[in-house]
Amino acid sequence: MHQYPQRPRPDDQPSYQEYPPRGQGGHQQYQHPQHPQHPQRAEQAQRPQYAQHQSYEAPYGYPPAPAGHPHEAEPPQPKRSRRRIWISAVVALALLLGGGGFAAWKLDWFSGNGEAVTFGKNPPPAEGRSDAGAPSAEAKPSGDPDVLMPTGPKSDFKQTAKLDDGTIIAKTRVTGAKSGFEGDVWVWAPKQYDDPKYAKSGFPVLIALPGGNGFPNNYWADTSLGLQKAINEGVKAGTSLPYIVVMPVLNPDAKYYYDGSDIPGQAKMGTWIAEDVPAFAKANFRTYKSRDGWAFMGSSSGAFVGMKTVLQHPDKFKAVIASGGEIVPDSPLWKGHQAEMDANNPEKLAQKLIDTKGPEVYINFQIGTKESGKDRMTKFQQQYGKGPIKTTIRDIQNGEHNGWHYVRGMKEGSLEWVSKVLKAPKPEAG
């Protein structure tokens, strides 16, 4: 695993809001490392007036250029003669026909990225037909009334990555019916989803939220972080459920944090996360009607949004794995909207849930021993970890503020923890 050095953290800066600075303060922002074979890109938009947002190194790979900053032009290439081009083509063909085909596949030439993807390829045979080649009929749910078959309309998915087990990560564009926001969403379905034994079963959904800008990409869709692989390994070991992982963009731009909330005058990102993203999952996948099949996981600012949404909508979501996250909202866009900000404050939402004896929710904090912030998690646990709010804190030994280490924490116990409180898919007997 590659380790990226963290940038020096500036001193705490006071915030305009009533909340005191929190450790290093603000949502901690990932910054992507520059890779030597790529040209240097323009710096991403910064917000110096809100210095509480810190910069850390990226959890993976080399990012696309930020919006408004095109790629630098590549140096001109020397012209090649037509004869040389033909020779190169013949050599390439010979390699493919010989022993180079596998190498070409490894180089992603035949990865299938960009091709159309259909999830749920194995519905049961049509009524009255038992042959595998019969036209398929829409599967009817099992005897469990909680199972929700895809409601439609179906989205158009394009492959973005393929795991070693053949499962696919795919992307689509979603226009939120309730928020009006349009953004990209990535999805991964486990191997069990296409297994005919599960054709009538619902699957639990894990909505994975990134830190940093959370736009225009969701870094959990990058296989190098190992989230999907960790779930696969957990399923084999019996420590994880086979989740459908839904990975939406977190913010509408790369300039501000929106705290996953409906800030007045801004894009309705709270409605996008809590309403439109689940509706998209229900439209395309076999899920569960009850909250027992719905959870979040997130890192940094994504951890805050996941925890806030579970506390805000305990009737829809049951659990969250919150890694290296913040506890209270701190978007600069809240200025002048104190009441609305309070309505999106996990501390106030937690107290309300305790007072009303609301449904139980489960919060699993993760924190690396080499990063700050555990004091805030501990304080939250001491003040609000009672009644319907079940909390635990997992220390990740030698862990830093990055996605690799948070996935390690999930493998070491957090996936098993969340899997014990959510509903498992049920295969048909036989």
- The overall pLDDT average reads 79
The level of helicity is 10-25%
Spatial gap, N to C terminus: 42 Å
What is the CA-based Rg, rounded? Answer: 23 Å
Summarize the helix and strand pattern as letters. EEHHEEEEEEHEHEEHEHHEHEH
Task: Characterise this structure.
The structure is a single chain. The protein has about 425 residues and is an alpha/beta fold. About 25% of the residues lie in helices and about 15% in strands. The strands form three sheets. A ten-stranded mixed beta sheet has the order 3-5-6-7-9-8-11-12-13-14, with helices on both faces. The chain has a two-stranded parallel ribbon with strand order 1-2. The model is unreliable at about 1-80, about 90-110 and about 125-135 (pLDDT under 50).
Helix and strand arrangement:
Layout: E1 29-31, E2 55-57, H1 82-97, H2 101-106, E3 116-117, E4 147-148, E5 157-162, E6 168-175, E7 182-188, E8 205-209, H3 227-237, E9 244-248, H4 269-284, E10 287-288, E11 294-299, H5 301-312, E12 319-323, H6 338-342, H7 346-355, E13 361-368, H8 374-384, E14 389-396, H9 403-419
Parallel strand pairs: 1-2, 8-9, 8-11, 11-12, 12-13, 13-14
Antiparallel strand pairs: 3-5, 4-10, 5-6, 6-7, 7-9
